[in-house]
Specification:
Helix content: 40-55%
Strand order of the largest sheet: 3-6-5-4-7-8
Shape: globular
Bound molecules: adenosine monophosphate
Largest sheet: 6 strands, parallel
Radius of gyration: 24 Å
Length: about 550
């Protein structure tokens, strides 16, 4: 058992990860494309058989691309992939294309035995560790060339060809494994932005999941290259984190100009005279375009050398209003509580349910058969939904779809009875999540849903995981039924239904229920809605006073 103390700054949580293989099977190690393909096709056919009765059940494959020498940063990606996928593949490949002629390709740490052990303890299903010939990295080679504006800035200035090399190998790995999700660290923010762009530009069918930077207690971001540092250098290197914090403090005090933020960071960096600064820059985190000031969001990125070791780190600065994301199992009272919290904090309640209802209304209105998923996907991709707080705060929100107000029309029995069939369609979810995220750019909202804090708003300032025992949820549901004058269902039956629903919700392929690592759990057994609301409002003020 390897114990890895993890510290994820920014979200303010400490995790002590004990990675154990609960699967009781040894991690498979493949070094050839043929064996990997064989394994994947077996996984997919097994999953097809298992998922036959409910296509929604989780069948996904998650890929974590690495260059090996695994540390707790890599393990956090693996842990996240483990939570969200049926099969987790870790690739280990020291990619020659991303090293310059004077860089450390030959000396880069190669620790396959140790990596294999760590993967096993982390419950990885298979490692793919091909050599250069096996992966077909020959010369000449077809390469993926991301936009120059993204590869020639920041690290690209001193590492020409590096990101093209990364993009080429990551694209190869994505094509080979064809995962539903692939996991990358925010520490390598330029790499993450470029991969997102490549995936979008080439229409690769994969979700790229960015994961927070894992640090040691001093704040130094974990990196395989930290092995090159002496104990003293590791202490000195922590100045990089301190300098990001100095810029953050200036930002929080109202400074939004790039020059001033960069100066605040450099002033701190200069405290360690042997550190050579390569760059300190403010860019947009998605496009990497240099910014004169932080409008909605900016990324302050640093590269510096200690001796011959090159270190990078970054911090995201946001001016947007906060987002409160409330996840939790069905029946824990998410939507009632979210409405009340929004009202108490003067934020907008983002009624995601109303969005699915609005689309359902449109589908019914246009007479599209519910099983014509392609036509519904087409409609979902084009539709425009607007939400606005109604003047009467007691009332639900006003809702428009394609400029037509449907506030009342979406509450009919017909819409209610069909909405779950529409919401279960992956293309619908994808389209509506994109709309939710675009509202999220401005912030100032409270949203609830099964995966709102883990998937839709992973950067939410406050994440709440609202839960209640199965017994309590069954009791609440029985009361609801009684109020609605519906037939009495026994508590035993309701408890069985809820347990089954919990299992399905947490193993869904689309939007599985997970508790985010940085969520605050509130157990609501015996608490009134007002008490839960008050508890969340308190968490909000406490969390925001730290930001
Ligand atoms: P590498 O092995 O350096 O290519 O890294 C493999 C993946 O792990 C990349 O997506 C990195 O961004 C990620 N990673 C490396 N260090 C950390 C860290 N300290 N925290 C989170 N992710 C990391």
């Amino acid at each position: 058992m390897v114990k890895v103390p993890l510290l994820v700054h920014g979200s303010d949580i400490k995790l002590t990860g004990e990675y154990s293989n609960n699967w009781g099977i040894l991690v498979r190690l493949f070094t050839t494309v043929a064996a990997l393909r064989c394994y994947l096709s077996l996984c997919r056919s097994d999953q097809r058989a298992e998922g036959a009765e409910g296509a929604e059940l989780r069948q996904a494959i998650g890929l974590v691309p690495t260059m090996g020498a695994l540390h707790a940063g890599h393990l956090s990606l693996i842990q996240r992939a483990r939570q969200e996928n049926a099969t987790v593949i870790v690739s280990i490949f020291v990619n020659p294309l991303q090293f310059g002629p004077t860089e450390d390709y030959q000396h880069y740490p190669r620790l396959l035995d140790q990596d294999r052990q760590l993967c096993e303890q982390a419950g990885v299903d298979a490692i793919f560790a091909p050599n250069v010939q096996e992966l077909g990295v020959t010369s000449p080679l077809t390469q993926v060339v991301p936009p120059d504006a993204m590869t020639s800035v920041l690290c690209g200035r001193t590492r020409p060809g590096h990101f093209q090399g990364v993009a080429t190998i990551v694209t190869k790995l994505l094509n080979l494994v064809q995962p539903e999700r692939a996991y990358f660290g925010q520490k390598d923010a330029q790499q993450l932005a470029i991969i997102r762009r490549v995936v979008a530009d080439l229409n690769l069918p994969v979700e790229i999941v960015g994961c927070p930077t894992v640090r040691v207690a001093s704040g130094l971001a974990l990196s395989s290259r930290n092995q090159y540092l002496s104990v003293e250098q590791k202490e000195q290197a922590a100045v990089i984190y301190r300098s990001l914090q100095a810029a953050l403090q200036a930002f929080q005090a109202g400074e939004d100009r790039g020059t001033a933020l960069i100066a605040a960071s450099k002033a701190e960096l200069m405290m360690v005279s042997c550190l050579q600064i390569e760059y300190v820059e403010l860019v947009h985190p998605t496009t990497l375009v240099p910014l004169e000031k932080v409008e909605e969001t900016g990324m302050l990125a640093i590269a510096a050398r200690l001796g011959s070791t090159r270190l990078i780190d970054n911090i995201i600065l946001r001016t947007r209003q906060p987002i409160v994301a409330i996840d939790g199992p069905a029946g824990a009272g998410k939507s009632t509580v979210a409405r009340q919290v929004a009202q108490a904090l003067g934020l907008l309640y983002l009624d995601t349910g109303a969005m699915y209802r609005a689309l359902t209304w449109l589908v019914l209105q246009l007479g599209i058969p519910l099983d014509d998923k392609c036509a519904i996907a087409e409609l979902a991709s084009h539709c425009q939904i607007q939400l606005a707080a109604s003047a009467d705060q007691q009332n639900s929100q006003r809702v428009w779809i394609n400029d037509r107000e449907v506030t009342h029309a979406i509450r009919t029995l017909e819409v209610t009875s069909q909405v779950s069939a529409i919401a279960a369609q992956p293309a619908v979810r994808q389209a509506l999540v994109l709309q939710q995220q675009s509202w999220g750019q401005k912030g100032g909202l409270v949203a609830e849903g099964r995966d709102i804090g883990t998937h839709v708003f992973p950067d939410a300032e406050l994440k709440i995981f609202l839960t209640a025992s199965v017994k309590e949820r069954a009791r609440r549901r029985q009361l609801d039924f009684q109020h609605q004058g519906q037939v009495d269902v026994s508590l035993d039956q309701l408890e069985r239904d809820i347990t089954e629903r919990d299992w399905k919700d947490s193993t869904r392929n689309v939007a599985p229920l997970q508790k985010a690592a940085d969520a605050i759990e509130i157990q609501t057994d015996g608490l009134s809605v007002a008490q839960v609301t008050a508890a969340i409002v308190k968490c909000y003020h406490k969390r925001l006073s730290k930001h």
